[in-house]
Write a structure and sequence with these properties.
single chain, alpha/beta, Rossmann fold, 3-stranded parallel beta sheet, 44% helix, flat
């Protein structure tokens, strides 16, 4: 499963990144710190799932 993380807090993203990378069933394909960057990543990478900070 390809995953994109979207959160403005770099420390939180780093923690999620470590968890996702450790799981061999999932692939972290991108990260964004804001909505505009997230939209670009989503359109380009077409992930299966996203973890978003509302």
């Amino acid at each position: 499963m390809k995953i994109v993380i979207v959160d403005e807090h770099p420390i939180f993203r780093r923690g999620l990144r470590e968890i996702i990378v450790a799981d061999t069933d999932h692939e972290l394909v991108g990260e964004a710190g804001d909505g505009a960057s997230a939209l670009q990543l989503i359109q380009r990478l077409k992930p299966d799932a996203m973890i978003l900070d509302v």
